[in-house]
Every structure is written in structure tokens, then in C-alpha cells.
UniProtKB/TrEMBL annotation:
Gene3D superfamilies: P-loop containing nucleotide triphosphate hydrolases
Keyword annotations from UniProtKB, A to Z: ATP-binding, Nucleotide-binding, Transport
Family matches, as InterPro entries: AAA+_ATPase, ABC_transp_ATP-bind, ABC_transporter-like_ATP-bd, ABC_transporter-like_CS, Oligopep_ABC_C, P-loop_NTPase
Organism listed in the record: Kribbella kalugense
Name under which the protein is recorded: Peptide/nickel transport system ATP-binding protein
Residue ranges occupied by any ABC transporter domain in the UniProt entry: 6-252
Annotated signal sequence range: none
Amino acid sequence: MSDELLNLKDVKKYFGLRGAPWRKAQSVRAVDGVNLVVRKGETVGLVGESGSGKSTLARVATRLLDPTQGRVEIGGTDVTRLRGRRLRPIRRQIQMVFQDPQASLNPRQSVGTILSTPYRAQGIRPTRAQLVELLEQVGLAEQHLERYPHEFSGGQRQRIGIARALAMKPGLLVCDEPVSALDVSVQAQVLNLLADLRDELGLSYVLVAHDLAVVRQVADRIAVMYLGTIVEEGPAAQVYEAPAHPYTKALLSAVPVPEPGVSRDRIVLTGDVPTPINPPSGCPFRTRCYKAEDVCATERPVLEPVQGSTEHRAACYFPEPPTSERKQ
């Protein structure tokens, strides 16, 4: 039996734009040909700038959005075209934790009602003991069941969102920037909670984030997105210590070093991010890349192994050299 919990194959998601009848129809290419596999017990960090398509990909992966093209497999089952009742059993295997803990909770419902919703959607009537167990798993208590979202802090609200996602005992959680709306001290608490739940319940995660430091703390593998595509993927240690794609290297150069007197050589990218309505030909990053040449405009590079590693791949014609070569 395969250990693949999620398998995205050449997934694309385009959003049509409405305009005047005499104008040519246009589409926003939010996700443009992504392949990604998440296995049991693995935490995959999905990183990139705002607008790179991370959140859209997360929603397609959980089937909150229909893909325009490609294939979505959850637990080995093709769920690309499933809807309604046929999709309901799949919801038990994969759940989502949303970015804004305040917007994702119904302000008119008590915590007990919010936690009961996944059960009712599956035709189950939960007991109070089940709801209390969910709260205790995320560090809250039974007396919180009768309270409403506005009575909690941001960190507590996000814990409630995590508890709701755990109700059906899924194997995979897709977390869409789960700590970006929280204070720094609270971010660490929520990330530690996710790590503890992973060890205790055997969970796997897709952790969407734009903060590379956050992802590095918990991720086993990193996938870097730019303009709807994955430009680099590999084990977290290899991606952080020896980034192969120029875009990844530029992102890491912007991360502050938490040591007085120590700094990185900053790489400042020129130009603006191209529009996903009309992306560049060839490599999507070539218009801002400091290593771009004519070949980059002809055909899009594919993810290929770099630095002698079969697991570390980059979509670049001129990848960065291994760390040992850089020091020479």
C-alpha cells in the first residue's frame, strides 16, 4: 500500500476574468502546472511571495476549489471530479486550517457548536466527551465549549480552528499561513502545538507560509512557488543550506540573521512580479533573474535533480553551484 496521502499531478487552476463582450477572454493563471507529493508522517513547507499561488493550491488540494486541469489524488483515490456526497468520505482524510482564525469561525456559534459541525456534516452526533477531548488536544478546557469566538485571543481562536480540523481524525492537515495573523510569541506556541500533534497523532502537514523562518522550524521538505509554479523542491536542510534556484537564494538572502554583527549578502530583485494573466514565456522568473539568458525565454525549465541529489530539484537552466564550489 502506498504511503502517499496527497498527490497533485500537473494541477492547474485558472480564474476567468469578466470584461466587455468584444474583448478577448482572459484568465488568471493562479496555479500553472504543479506536481507535489505528500507522504505519511511528512511536513511539507510551501513557500513563496504573496500572489505566487500557495493558498489557491492549498484549496485545490483539499478540494475546496475544482482544478481547471490535472489530477488530485487523496489517499490513492482520484478525487478530481468528485462532488457532494461522493466527496464527503474524503473529507475525513484531509482537512484545512485557515489563515485568519477570526474570519474562519462563525461569531454567532459557540465553540461547542463549531466543533460539532464536522461531525454533523458526516451524519454523526458527537458526545460532549468527544468535544472536550478535541479542546484538550489543543490546550483548551471544557469550560470553553459555551464561549464564543470573540471571547478568545487570536492564538486561542487558532487553536479552536485546529481542533475543528482534527474532529474527523484526518491523516493530513493543510495549514494556510496558520500563524501569520498572530503575535511572534504566540506563533511559536502554535507551531509547537502543531509539532506535538504531529508526533502524538501521526499527522502529516502541508504548511503554507511566506515566512521562511517559520517553515524551517517544522518542515521536512520545502517546495518554493513562483507565479503559480514550483521552482525548487527538496529536503529542508538542503534547500536552506544550498538553494539551487536564484529565486530561492534571493528569498533566503532577505531572512534576518539572529546574531549581532552577522549579515547575509542581500540579493535585491529588480522589476515587479509579472501578472499571472500574461506570464512570461519560458521560465516565469526570467524577467527578474540575475542569471537569465536567451534560452530562458524559449522553453519553461522542468524540475530536475541538482547537486548530485535525487531529492533536491530545481527548475532552472543555470542552477546555483553546490556549497563546496561556492567556497572555492
